[in-house]
UniProtKB/TrEMBL annotation, chain A:
GO terms for molecular function: gamma-tubulin binding; microtubule minus-end binding. Belongs to the TUBGCP family. The keyword Metal-binding does not apply. It comes from Asbolus verrucosus. This is Gamma-tubulin complex component 3. InterPro entries: GCP, GCP_C, GCP_C_sf, GCP_N. Residues 189-485 form the Gamma tubulin complex component protein N-terminal domain. It comes from the Eukaryota. One of its GO terms (cellular component) is microtubule. Residues 488-815 form the Gamma tubulin complex component C-terminal domain. Keywords: Cytoplasm, Cytoskeleton, Microtubule. One of its GO terms (biological process) is meiotic cell cycle. It is found in: Cytoplasm, Cytoskeleton.
Automatic annotation (TrEMBL), chain B:
The keyword Cytoplasm applies. InterPro entries: MZT1. It comes from Asbolus verrucosus. PANTHER family: MITOTIC-SPINDLE ORGANIZING PROTEIN 1. This is MOZART1 domain containing protein. It comes from the Eukaryota. Belongs to the MOZART1 family. Pfam families: MOZART1 (PF12554). It is found in: Cytoplasm, Cytoskeleton, Microtubule organizing center.
């Protein structure tokens, strides 16, 4: 700095005065004139352009450009000077000084190149000295002022003629500079705007993969590092745009409604973005001159910043949603809702609201009307094809687990499923087309709430409550219909009475009537005879007072039989259930058949044993005289008693401990049931526990086979006793005949021949008794073994009740199993 | 103390030399005095671009006056 200039004044006016004096070379008149000009400029221009970009790097680059255009040495010299300037701390406002120098340099450059286009454009008073605008001091000042106050050069008419001239030269200027190794910012910006829309430009080329853009390597050489950085940031936007557009195009056709909703939202965002691009483009067009550009790379970066952030999240969401559809897609979007970034939350909420809309509509349709309109399998409830109407409840509708959105819990999903299923059940199975209670209110509610109710925390509570209400009301309606119209309880009672042998007198009588018929081989039995027997059994017993409808449902059936089966093996009672209650009972009918089989068998054994005991008593009276019969009868007697004890205990266990307890429990549950599923569940539990109790379940298979062999012993013993009875009767009758013959004989006695015959017969009879005796003895022993084994199995069972049964069967430790 | 002041002055001189050289390189046509004043103005926080315009303007005005006087 010039140290010789005395005390340094730092205020601007003084310095300006000094400057004017210096320039005017101490001519006072001129100096005053200059001062006026200078102050008028400064005072007005502060208002016109208060802010100048003060990026030092930018200025340096521009200086470099100018100098390198001149010569290489100059450029190198500049680098040296610049580093010197940078080193010192004397200059506080280095940037400002540099900017001043640059501006000055530019102005003198333009003076040479384009006839001072710049200064003419901005300050018409500086038109070349030759112009007709006379430079009378006052006049020029006025014109300058008027120009600045009007912010526009058009106010001076005299300039206009020359300014058209100037403009044309100005328009051609940028292209000429672009050809000279310099890329103007304007051109670059235009290219970037193209790339924003996915179009290649002069300097920007598409990358491999067709998504991103890179700067053309040739053009890239001429970019300043700052420009390059800016361009790279800006092309990032183009990449995002292309990615989103690609997603939209790819998923436009395929995918379901929910996917389309996502695409629509993305397209909406894209069109908002295009609007911004259009604004950018207009701003770019408006600016005619390059020097004070209205639109710069920086500004455009600011312009699109908001979109950029949104697009980043949208692209991320779109990427997550790729290859997903329906509920899975909704889940993917919902994941972003919990994101910490405010923007991510906003964007994801918007997208989520959009994608939930179709889901919401589907959901309400399902809840209100039980309809599924879901051609692309997006809804989280699916309808399958079913063969029988009874299977509607069980098989037709399912929750599609992969499609359940994350904001709906599995519990809710099940309730939703049950609600729609109930509606379908009412409509299709019960033919109940009446309006369900409370539907109107619900419909109103569905219209008033929006899709946000599904995931917004406060509203989702409300949604949950509504769902609960709908579910409850629909279920109640179903239960009401089943209990009252379709007499669910009566059916349960009938099943209990007839298939589970609750109606004792009827079963007993039926058994008695059926014995001769069922002893025949299976193939000789005819349905109609059995039906007739069933009819008569009903007529004679208390079953006749039963409801007509119930009795009509009761029929007999045969299971498939093979060679050697008797009627006992194939006979079964059947209770036909159809209609809505069939939904509950139809799937369990086979279980009922099994249970009936087991109980029926036990009943039959009881019946057989009772008959045996009766026969034993008659035999004891009848054959009192046949002493030889007594030992064998004794064995049979004891064995029968054992068997009766065994069977009574077993039956007691079956009928009271198992059946009655389970039945009571089921009734309790059915009365408290809230929906059809509860009843079905209770019924299934009941059947399972009974099945387990009568040893028909998987774990007690061995026990059951043991029990069957014990039953077989009973039947064997019955056979033996029968045979014995027959033989004894025959023997007794022949003996009677023989004695009467002897008494009434005219020959006083018998012939030797007859005597030999009689002896042989008695001998035969004795032999028979002996053989029976050994057989029965053997049978008794093996029976004991089987019972022991059975008891051991019982006592080792994990079921407490079975252990107790074992204790009861061997109460006084008769069998000594341990 | 005086030592640091001396170095400061020396530094200032060097810087000014560099600026002068730069001015010459950029063909601004400023003499030492003018540059010195302008640098000080810049340091004082004046808008550099406007200042540049003013300087240019003043130079032209002076040139005009001179021309006129020569013509007369």
């Amino acid at each position: 700095m010039n140290s010789s200039s005395g005390p340094e004044s730092t205020n601007q006016p003084d310095l300006i005065l000094k400057l004017c004096n210096h320039v005017a070379k101490n001519k006072p008149v001129l100096s005053a004139n200059l001062c006026k000009i200078a102050f008028s400029f400064l005072s007005s221009s502060v208002a016109v352009a208060p802010n100048v970009p003060s990026d030092e790097q930018y200025i340096i680059v521009q200086i470099r450009q100018i100098l390198s255009a001149q010569s290489k040495e100059n450029a190198e010299h500049f680098e040296l000077l610049y580093s010197n300037i940078c080193k010192t701390s004397v200059l506080q406002n280095r940037c400002s000084v540099l900017s001043f120098l640059l501006k000055l340099a530019k102005m003198s450059q333009k003076e040479v190149k384009w006839n001072t286009v710049e200064s003419l454009e901005k300050f018409p008073s500086t038109i070349r000295p030759k112009s007709h605008l006379a430079l009378k001091s006052g006049n020029s000042q006025e014109s300058i002022r008027s120009i600045f106050q009007g912010h526009c050069h058009n106010s001076v008419k005299s300039v206009q003629s020359s300014s058209t001239n100037i403009q044309s030269s100005c328009l051609t200027a940028p292209s000429s500079t672009a050809d000279l190794s310099l890329i103007t910012e304007r051109d670059l910006l235009q290219d970037i705007i193209y790339s924003f829309q996915g179009i290649e430009g002069r300097f920007l080329r598409k990358e491999v993969g067709n998504l991103g853009f890179t700067v053309d390597p040739k053009a890239g050489k001429n970019l300043t590092p700052i420009q390059r950085g800016l361009v790279e940031r800006l092309t990032g936007m183009s990449f995002l745009h292309n990615q989103l557009k690609q997603y939209c195009d790819n998923n436009d056709e395929q995918g379901g409604v929910i996917c389309l909703a996502l695409v629509a939202t993305l397209r909406e965002e894209l069109s908002a973005y295009y609007k911004t691009i259009a604004l950018l483009q207009t701003a770019l067009k408006k600016q005619v001159c390059i020097d004070q550009p209205q639109m710069t790379l920086r500004k455009s970066l600011v312009y699109i910043h908001e979109h950029r952030v949104r697009f980043e999240w949208l692209a991320y969401i779109a990427e997550q949603c790729n290859d997903k559809k329906g509920g899975a897609l909704v889940t993917a979007v919902h994941g972003f809702l919990q994101h910490g970034s405010k923007c991510a939350q906003e964007v994801s909420e918007k997208v989520l609201t959009a994608v939930c809309k179709p889901l919401y509509i589907m959901l309400w349709r399902w809840l209100l009307d039980g309809e599924i309109n879901d051609s692309c399998n997006e809804f989280f409830i699916e309808a399958r094809d079913i063969t029988a109407a009874e299977r509607l409840w069980h098989d037709k509708y399912h929750v599609r687990k992969s499609m359940v959105p994350s904001f709906i819990t599995m519990d809710q999903a099940k309730k939703i499923l049950a609600t729609g299923k109930s509606i379908n059940f009412l409509r299709q199975i019960c033919k109940d087309s009446g309006q369900l209670p409370g539907r109107d209110a619900l419909q109103k509610l569905s219209r008033s709430t929006s899709a946000e109710a599904l995931f917004a925390p406060e509203q989702s509570l409300e949604f949950d409550a509504t769902l609960e209400k709908v579910y409850r009301e629909t279920s109640l309606r179903v239960l009401d219909l089943l209990k009252n119209k379709y007499r669910l309880f009566e059916h349960l009672q009938s099943l209990r009475r007839y298939l589970l042998l609750g109606q004792g007198d009827f079963i007993r009588h039926l058994l008695e009537l059926l014995v001769p018929e069922l002893n025949k081989p299976a193939q000789e039995i005819y349905n109609h005879t059995l039906s007739a027997i069933l009819e008569s059994a009903i007529r004679v017993t208390n079953a006749q007072f039963e409801d007509e409808d119930t009795l009509q449902r009761l029929t007999v059936s045969f299971m498939g039989h093979s060679q050697g089966d008797t009627g006992w093996d194939v006979f079964s009672l059947v209770y036909i259930v159809d209609g809505p209650v069939g939904t509950i009972f139809q799937p369990t009918m086979t279980t009922y058949q099994c249970l009936f089989g087991a109980l029926w068998k036990a009943k039959r054994m009881e019946f057989v044993l009772a008959n045996m005991r009766k026969q034993q008593i008659t035999m004891a009276k009848k054959f009192r005289k046949i002493k030889e019969l007594q030992p064998v009868m004794h064995i049979i007697h004891i064995l029968t008693s054992e068997m009766i004890h065994f069977l009574h205990q077993t039956q007691y266990y079956f009928l009271f401990e198992v059946l009655e307890c389970s039945w009571a429990e089921m009734l309790r549950q059915v009365n408290h049931a809230e929906c059809l599923d509860d009843i079905i569940g209770a019924h299934t539990i009941f059947l399972n526990s009974v099945q387990c109790g009568v040893l028909l379940d998987e774990s007690s298979r061995q026990l059951f086979s043991q029990l069957r062999s014990i039953y077989n012993f009973i039947l064997n013993l019955e056979g033996h006793q029968e045979a014995l009875n027959e033989a004894a009767t025959r023997e007794y009758e022949t003996y009677l005949e023989f004695t009467t013959n002897v008494e009434s004989s005219v020959n006083f006695g018998i012939t030797t021949d007859e005597e030999i015959k009689a002896k042989a017969r008695v001998e035969n009879f004795h032999q028979f008794i002996n053989s029976i005796r050994t057989k029965v003895k053997h049978l008794s022993q093996t029976y004991k073994q089987f019972v022991k084994k059975y008891l051991i199995l019982l006592s080792t069972s994990s079921n407490m009740n079975l252990q107790l049964l074992s204790v009861r069967l061997s109460f006084n430790d008769y069998y000594k199993i341990i | 103390m005086s030592n640091t002041k001396l170095t400061q002055i020396k530094e200032a001189k060097e810087t000014f030399q560099a600026l002068m050289e730069l001015s010459r390189l950029l063909c601004t046509g400023l003499d030492t005095e003018t540059l010195s004043i302008c640098v000080r103005l810049c340091e004082a926080g004046i808008n550099p671009e406007v200042l540049a315009t003013v300087v240019k303007e003043l130079q032209k005005e002076v040139a005009n006056v001179n021309e006129n006087s020569v013509n007369e």
